[in-house]
């Protein structure tokens, strides 16, 4: 496999054989644990080398995934059987640079959501090739959101209403909600005006749904940022 990027801290060639195995995510548990599962998202606590290494892992796995060089399941259970009537919209931010590609968001979904689930011995899927039951543009997708909104107001409609996004850390809320994600790092800033306008238009197509921030569902997260709630919070613009 020919790699598009130049890697400084990791050697992607050493992973070619690993990603050809159905349980590849078990073989790279140390890397996944250090750079993803145990990472709290606070960059100030990490060295530049650590952050660059983490970025390289995302880039590398993204390259393998785009090239169809990660062994995934080609069929599986209908994971949307638990879908309930939609009564909530949950707002997220990607906590990534705003120019991040959908491929990167897809890669992060595979790493942070599906790989840890398939790594749990208590689950019947343990050690099996990963299956999401969702496709986007004729490829299996691991994006957790129904809509992704960019800074310029354009958006991608990834998951359909009948599909469950693994987005808020609470299965009951997942089963009955629509997830809208701003492709941006909104920890300390609000979304752009264009992005807010687009999100508001999407929200209006679900007139009977309650609007929630991810942090209102999962109290341990700050997503979608510190400025979302409160009298001056940008949640009010979306209502």
Count of alpha and pi helical runs: 8
- Tell me, what is the CATH class of one domain? Alpha Beta
Strand content: 5-15%
**Rg:** 18 Å
Low-confidence stretches: none
Which sheet architecture does the biggest sheet show?
5 strands, mixed
Q: Report the strand count.
A: 7
CATH architecture label name of one domain: 3-Layer(aba) Sandwich
Q: What would you give as the CATH superfamily of one domain?
A: Peptidoglycan recognition protein-like
What is the general shape?
globular
| N-to-C order of helices and strands | HHHEHEEEEHEHEHH
Q: Residue share in helices?
A: 25-40%
Strand order of the largest sheet: 5-4-6-1-7
Structural class: alpha/beta
Report the end-to-end length measured between terminal Cα atoms.
48 Å
Overall pLDDT metric = 97
CATH fold-level label of one domain: Lysozyme-like
Question: Can you walk through the features of this model?
Answer:
The structure is a single chain. The chain is α/β, with parallel strands linked by helices. It has a domain at 88-101 and 126-238: Peptidoglycan recognition protein-like (Lysozyme-like, 3-Layer(aba) Sandwich), CATH 3.40.80. Helix content is 31%, strand content 11%. The protein has a five-stranded mixed sheet with strand order 5-4-6-1-7. A two-stranded antiparallel ribbon has the order 2-3. Helix 3 crosses helix 4.
């Amino acid at each position: 496999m020919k790699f598009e990027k130049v890697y400084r801290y990791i050697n992607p060639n050493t992973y070619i054989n690993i990603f050809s195995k159905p349980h590849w995510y078990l073989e790279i548990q140390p890397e996944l644990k250090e750079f993803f599962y145990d990472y709290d998202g606070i960059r100030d606590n990490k060295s530049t080398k650590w952050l660059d290494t983490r970025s390289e892992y995302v880039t590398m796995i993204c390259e393998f995934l785009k090239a169809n060089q990660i062994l995934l399941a080609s069929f599986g259970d209908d994971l949307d059987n638990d879908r309930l009537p939609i009564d909530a919209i949950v707002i997220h931010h990607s906590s990534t640079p705003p120019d991040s590609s959908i491929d990167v968001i897809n890669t992060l979904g595979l790493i942070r959501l599906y790989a840890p689930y398939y790594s749990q011995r208590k689950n019947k899927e343990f050690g099996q090739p990963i299956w999401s039951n969702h496709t986007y543009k004729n490829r299996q997708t691991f994006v957790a959101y129904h809509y992704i909104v960019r800074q310029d107001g354009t958006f991608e409609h990834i998951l359909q209403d009948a599909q469950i996004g693994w987005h808020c850390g609470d299965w009951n809320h997942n089963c009955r909600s629509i997830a809208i994600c701003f492709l941006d790092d909104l920890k300390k800033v609000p979304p752009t005006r264009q992005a807010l306008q687009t999100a508001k238009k999407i929200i209006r197509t679900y007139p009977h749904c309650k609007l929630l921030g991810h942090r209102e569902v999962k109290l341990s997260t700050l997503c979608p940022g510190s400025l979302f709630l409160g009298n001056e919070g940008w949640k009010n613009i979306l209502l």
